[in-house]
## 1
Amino acid sequence: MKKTMVVLGAGPAGLSCALEGARKGLKVTLLEKKQVGDRINCGEGFFDLFSLAEKPVSGILYKVKYIIISALNTYTLDSSSFNLWMIDRQQWQKALAELAVKEKVNLLENHAVKPIDVASLSRQFDWVVDATGVVGLTTKVPQNLRQAYQKDWWVTLQCLLQGDFSSYRDSFKVKLLQDCTGYCWLFPKDTSLARAGVAVFKSGSKRVNLNEPLEIFLKEQQNYKTYTLLEKKGGRIPAAPLWPLLKRENIFLAGDAAGLASPLHGGGLDTAVASGTLLGRCLAAGEPETYPAALREALSHKMNLERKISWCWQKLGLTFMDCLLKIINLSGLTFLLNKMYDYELPLNR
Ligand SMILES: Cc1cc2nc3c(=O)[nH]c(=O)nc-3n(C[C@H](O)[C@H](O)[C@H](O)COP(=O)(O)OP(=O)(O)OC[C@H]3O[C@@H](n4cnc5c(N)ncnc54)[C@H](O)[C@@H]3O)c2cc1C
């Protein structure tokens, strides 16, 4: 008889896990509290430098050819050879859901799972996958493990702008902040809509002011006075993997629920897809115990590098980041990443 898997949450991690599990022979149920792709709060830049995920099957708006990034100086980095796309996440996730349904995944939308349901789901199904984002639903029971996400994380504030973004075509704009490890971004969706936001890295629970740097950044933009602000929303991104909690009995974590977003920039789409896909594969192969080690192995290159750069950024500030950007500008990102990977830094983790 087929093994059964229930996936909680139809974001990138849950959809990837459901799709891979069903393709590899599991009987899959996917429970989503909203409609797939509804009310997504994301910059929608799909940055997969380490080729961890498949190119989005749908929803690519354009390939990002340049990143205009400011630290002490401003650099225009050629990103045309990276896996970096601006995407429409709703379109992408709906396409993944369609593929999953074709693979006979039983998708139930508007179906919010409650912490109290977890015990009965774990009895009913062979495997339970928690891909509910941050804070992962299953980490709230039986004891509350919320603090596990608070080691390293990004706090963000983002808005959707209407205006003339025709001069930004094919490029992202990023400004590193002066006083803390953080940055502002402007990612155009098309010539008349853009997402602009701010993300600040923090350990523990100290408060940060996001409104001020975002306002300053917006005022610095060309045509600022003609922009209309359509929505403004905050959000948190966990950037400390919850390694010991990835597998608890027959319950598994993937994506943001597993704390897998980048410690360097907070992007988590690539790791959500990679972890979901890998988890679906391990479970379908009947090898659940292999998932934590396989995931560590798959992400180790990216995580090691990003932690090192992030650590230097926190300790040495903008001067370090400016030097790094200067070198990337001169020698290319691949060269620099390979060099940095060779050096060990005193990371007590
Ligand atoms: C402001 C902001 C900007 C960002 N910009 C970028 C970016 O440009 N690029 C990038 O790579 N990353 C970005 N990120 C991070 C990225 O959004 C996440 O890393 C990514 O969405 C993680 O995918 P996921 O599938 O793990 O979780 P999610 O995308 O959060 O999906 C979780 C799903 O579970 C569902 N769910 C939640 N609770 C329940 C429940 N109880 N029952 C059933 N379903 C439930 C939710 O409705 C949702 O569909 C950004 C994050 C923020 C906050």
Note: The helical segments are 12-23, 89-102, 118-124, 211-220, 269-284, 291-331, 333-342.
## 2
Amino acid sequence: MEENYDLTLIIHRYDPDTKRSWKQTYHLNAGRILRFVDLFRKINEEEDPGLAWNSSCEHGQCGSCSVKINGKPLLACELLVENAVEYFGTTTFEIEPLNVAPVIRDLVTDIEKAYKRVDKVKPYIIQSAPLSEKGEAYSITPDEMAPYINATRCINCFCCASACISSHRGFLGPNAMLASIVRLMDPREMEKIERLRVLYSDQGVCRCHSSHACSFVCPKEIDVAHFIALAKEGRFGSKSQKK
Ligand code: SF4
Ligand code: SF4
Ligand code: FES
């Protein structure tokens, strides 16, 4: 196994001051266990301090470093050089921002705009079930959680939304629908009618083509399309329940 690789990174750049877009090529020699966020940092430190990119936790938990690499949306803080070379079969990588929100600069997008779709589904318990008489915390058994525990691992990285093939402009997108479905499966959530109304609206599950692209790219290995399919089948309440 090689210890170092000679890499070519072709990065999509955008300057908001001049509105200019271009692709910039960087050549760098990098150790096999560097991650792509390390490569961006290396470029900043050694070659081009002006390259803008985003990260926060650098531990696969916040979703802020998601980019497209050779067309696949993924987390730049999780992808090691050696794994990228093996997966893509090349040492040349074209890197671009996710196409889920306007680009602010280079690889940084205005993710607040993308979050508006998630906000539409109210990603929290709208009306919680009453607590026990003793006032104890609400408890959920492992058996109750088993059907939806995987869906709770979503970090809203928007990789699935970026890969989604639905072309409807108003479509909520896979992660927003998942955020609602996980609450429909949560025994604490009492407000089903409002959730079903949004899911079965013109912006909801009817716009999904069941392509499974969302499941394929999810870095948390959530089978997003499976959960959307459950909603399509009416597992969480009849479509006639919508207002
Ligand atoms: S479902 Fe997966 S790909 Fe989609 S936002 Fe959540 S973690 Fe990211
Ligand atoms: S299964 Fe539906 S939500 Fe997922 S990528 Fe395909 S069209 Fe989009
Ligand atoms: S920086 Fe948080 S997931 Fe990559």
Note: The two ends are 60 Å apart (CA to CA).
